[in-house]
Structure formats: structure tokens, C-alpha cells
Fold this protein.
Amino acid sequence: MTRKELEEYIYKTYKVRPDYPWKRDRENGVFRHADNNKWFAIAMKIPQNRLGTDSEKMIDIVNVKAEPVLISGLWNTPGFYPAYHMNKTNWITIALDGTAPDDMVKMLVNMSFEETRKKAK
């Protein structure tokens, strides 16, 4: 899945477009719930070596929230990494370069959306 495909999926499913909270930065887009403003995903462009590789090539990624047991089980799967710049227990980084299966990316975005939505009292 590419970043564009991810953004299209999120819009089609949740009617959410990324916002860019950092004034001079249009590379890092946050996807938020409309009702509580909580993030459920953040798409970024980073040097690939920030994910523990030797490459300095720029790569699109998305961070999503998931259950810790699921996260640790995905770290050895191609395309999945410990969360970049986020809590590694509750968030996971997914490379948007086609290595992670599209259905898995969608499932994790959906889980993140549910995990971060406003809970009924």
C-alpha cells in the first residue's frame, strides 16, 4: 500500500483527511477523530535508516495504535517496525512501500481507529 492509497482508504472509510499540525511541515500528516481530536494514525516521510536499516532513502510510513501483544508479534514481519517516534508498547510503524500486506494495513488502521475513539460512559 502506498501513502496515497492509505489516505484514500482512510477517507473512504472514515471521512478523515490528514491535518498538518506543524506549520512548516507538509510531510507529516495526522489522522484524527472529529469528536475527540485523538490521533489514530500519523503518516510520515523519514529516512529508512531510522527503522534500523542501512539505507538513507526516504520512505513513507504510518504509525497506528494496537494491542501490545499484536505489536510484538508483528515486529519480525516484513514491513512492520517498532514505532518510530512514538510509544513502542502501544504503537507500531508500517512501511508504506508495498512490503506490508494491504489487508493487514487496513486491519491495523481500523483497530487503531477503534482503540482511540471516544468511549461511551
